[in-house]
Amino acid sequence: MEETNNMRFLIRVMKKEDVEEVARLITTVHRAREPITKILNVSEEEYYEKYGMLAAETCVKEPLSFVCLDTHLVDGEQIVGFRLGYTFNEQMVQQEIIENKNFDPICGMITLLKEYKLQWFQMEPDKTRLKCFFFFNLGVKEGYEKLGIATKLTEFSINVMKQEAYDYVFVIASANGSQYIFERKCGFKEVIANEYENIEYKGIKFLKSITNPKKLIGYELNLCNWEASKHMVPNTF
């Protein structure tokens, strides 16, 4: 087990050996609580293979994604929270390849994320010269939701982005909880918002049954405005 100086929880960088555990947790958390995933009607294994592993393998390439461990649990089951992300720019987003010959709800979701990212860069062309980071996933294991872990992971990560001289963080928030954290707790600015009932993929309004929240929101944080001293988070608690 990880040494935490008698503290139960530990925030640390995600490692390669965490990929499968994180991918499984993403799958479990999203299928239970993430609004888009809940209505996609895909199996656990399909979601794990097409999205959970994609997210974990993409984000582990840089030492800038973080997990929260419950050190009271056994090895291999300690990860109870994650905040994944990666450095990105407009060219990288344009080059993303999405296999979507037929109507595939997971491809629809990934395509939607790509559209939001492109729109964000195109809103202000100057961002192409800046150092930008995309918050890909944020989640907490069932039973750990009211311990402030998601907020701590977010603030901890933003502090690292500030230290690493990033200019902006961009995130797409689909659920009430994440929208509250980014907007109310961390001061992100809403820059893109579309009502779920109007979002289309291949001519189909495949998210129209989502009514709470009503919108899929893209937020940005200008790190010039981030005061790390007001959001200090220890890596053990």
From TrEMBL:
Span of the signal peptide: none
Gene3D superfamilies (alphabetical): 3.40.630.30
Example GO molecular function: N-acetyltransferase activity
N-acetyltransferase domain: residues covered: 106-188
SUPFAM superfamilies: Acyl-CoA N-acyltransferases (Nat)
Pfam family of the protein (one): Acetyltransf_1
Protein name in UniProt: N-acetyltransferase domain-containing protein
Species assigned in the record: Leptotrombidium deliense
